[in-house]
Amino acid sequence: MGLSLGIDFGTSGARAIAIDSSKNIVAEVHYPFTNANFQDWQKALFYLLDNLGDSVRSELKSIAINGTSSTVLLCDNWGNPLSEAILYNDGRGIAFLDAIKAIAPPHHPVISATSSLAKLLWWSEQEIFSQARYFLSQADWLAFLLHGKLGISDYHNALKLGYDLENLCYPDWLENLPMFNLLPQIFAPGTAIDTIKPDLVTRFAIPKDCLIYTGTTDSIAAFLASGANSLGDAVTSLGSTLVLKLLSSQKVDDSNYGIYSHRLGNLWLTGGASNTGGAVLKKFFSHEELRNYSLAIDGQKESNLDYYPLLKAGERFPINDPFLPAKLTPRPDNPLEFLHGLLESIARIEALGYQRLQELGANKLERVYSAGGGAKNSTWRIIRQRHLGVPVLLSQQDQAAYGTALLAQQSVTLLK
Ligand code: ADP
Fold it and tell me: Which intervals hold domain Carbohydrate kinase FGGY C-terminal (predicted)?
């Protein structure tokens, strides 16, 4: 039946997962990196293909890649990057925020110092810009290395570039920019673009009819992996920060809260990210302490400690206050009580986040899947369920590469 390969480029490494027609994982390869740029990505991509194993490679029928949202490249006519890529969290575009506000609709996700559009405008004032022919996202460029086609992207990677997701076209205010000719043609995520390049067929012994599909972003790939698939389903990512995503029939955008919606077929994936989360837990507790202390906490009982756990002042969602102070007092002597208070408080913020999304028009929350480092904490799941008032489940798969493999396999029903 053939195998499908999903490749995830995240912030701390790249991972490939191959699945069979029953969606079982048959191979997984990881390549860790930090502060990587395009040279490392290319190395990682070929390392992953090299290490999949002959038998897996010889059965590949489809490949898709997800990248980090708003990590972008400027390329020449042959796809060679003209400088280092600008990474997702690089805020150098801040000087162009007023220019963006002047053309984009209010509350649009491009109104951010780290948006792809802000990065493009920053580049437009650099000397190398005159040689630029293509402006691409990380996932677009990596897919180009496999199929050889330039100027192609998907509507997930193009959201923060300003692509109109409702009408599936570039809006006039973007078409009127002098650098519009650099922008890629946009397809739905999971669209077949071409077969793999002949030189890679020879190098890796991959079947020559293996198709390369358009990809997605890392956080959407993790959502696809979770198993969430109907209206009101949500995924909370309990990583270093707290990221919420809720599947809705209505689009919700509010740049004040950093809330935006991705399109998923005919539905919308609304979401926001809070600065609270596991990074604060990690500051006070080791991995073992988090696990062991949590097991000793009674999650059914409410802690009356009311914190706002942050590493530094400032929050965007669900409270928009750039100066919001961290609240971590009173701190009890007993570390169990302190941890209980932290878990309870983060759960309150999660519930407030979903409430905020619903107030702004998202569908009623029905079910929450959990992903990220804190997802396996069963005590926390009980605490969160008390605050959320809906079933809290573990994601079926928590690797973004798995979600991207489903995309390559054409088995994401929401996109059909
Ligand atoms: P990242 O967002 O950096 O990719 P991960 O998804 O790997 O993060 O999650 C790491 C976070 O998970 C850490 O910040 C850590 O505090 C948190 N974490 C790890 N184990 C637990 C646990 N048992 N309970 C709660 N949080 C945990």
Answer: 236-408
What is the per-residue pLDDT for 295?
98
Calculate the CA 80 to chain-centre distance: 25
Q: Which atom of ligand 1 is nearest to the CA of 12?
A: 4
pLDDT at 19: 98
Task: Please tell me the distance from the alpha carbon of residue 332 to that of residue 342, in angstroms, as a whole number.
Answer: 11
Ligand 1: residues with CB < 6 A are 239-240, 278-279, 281-282, 287, 290-291, 294, 372-374, 377, 380
As a whole number, mean pLDDT of residues 183-210 equals: 98
Tell the residue nearest (CA) to atom 26 of ligand 1.
374
Looking at every residue in the chain, the average pLDDT score rounds to 97
Report the length, in residues, of the chain: 416
Rounded to whole angstroms, the Cα distance separating 20 from 316 reads 41
| Spatial distance between the Cα atoms of 342 and 203, rounded to a whole number of angstroms | 52
Q: How far is 62 from 310, CA to CA, in rounded Å?
A: 42
Helical (H) or strand (E) element with 394: strand 392-394
Residue 410 in this model has a pLDDT that exceeds 90: yes
**Stretch 260-277: mean pLDDT, rounded?**
96
Burial pattern 83-100, b for ≥16 Cβ within 10 A else e, equals: eebbbbebeebeebbeeb
> Ligand 1 centre and the CA of 293: distance in Å?
15
| Token pair for 86 | 């600008």
* Ranges of H-type helices in 79-197: 97-103, 116-123, 138-147, 172-175
Angle at which helix 138-147 crosses helix 38-50, to 10 degrees, equals 50
Q: Within a 10 A sphere around the Cβ of 74, how many other Cβ atoms?
A: 25
- Residue 393 in this model has a pLDDT that exceeds 90: yes
Dist CA 231 CA 352 (whole Å): 19
pLDDT at 255 over 90: no
Q: State the average pLDDT over residues 103-122.
A: 95
Closest by Cα among 144, 151, 137 to 67: 137
How high is the ipTM of this complex? 0.97
